[in-house]
Amino acid sequence: CEGLQKVEEEVKNSGYEFMWNEHLGFVLTCPSNLGTGLRAGVHVKIPHVSQHAEFDNILKRLRLQKRGTGGVDTEAEGGIFDISNSDRLGFSEVELIQFVIDGVNLLIEMEKQLEKKGDIAGLIPAQK
Q1: pLDDT digits (tens, 9 = 90+) for 38-51
Q2: What's the pTM?
Q3: 85 - beta bridge partners?
């Protein structure tokens, strides 16, 4: 591909080169995975919480993100979500995993409350 060759040539002219290893090939990462690179995900069925008007805000406050169980850019089916840490930089591995554990536990508590037709306003956390 001519475009790729030109980019590689410019990189080399600047005194750099793409990282390459005989065993691994080109070594690269998605910028969202810089830092620890840790993404801890849990599949959890939360049909009531996910329909709540504050669902996205709750996830943001917990420093979590959602996706479908099929991976990036998939929709959840049957209220089953892949919930994971949204941060990759600025926190230790232990802190990132603890965000997921604490957040998923709270989402489950909220789900149980909503199943009983209860209110979750008092459970919505402040920003972490």
Answers
A1: 889 999 999 999 99
A2: 0.72
A3: 64
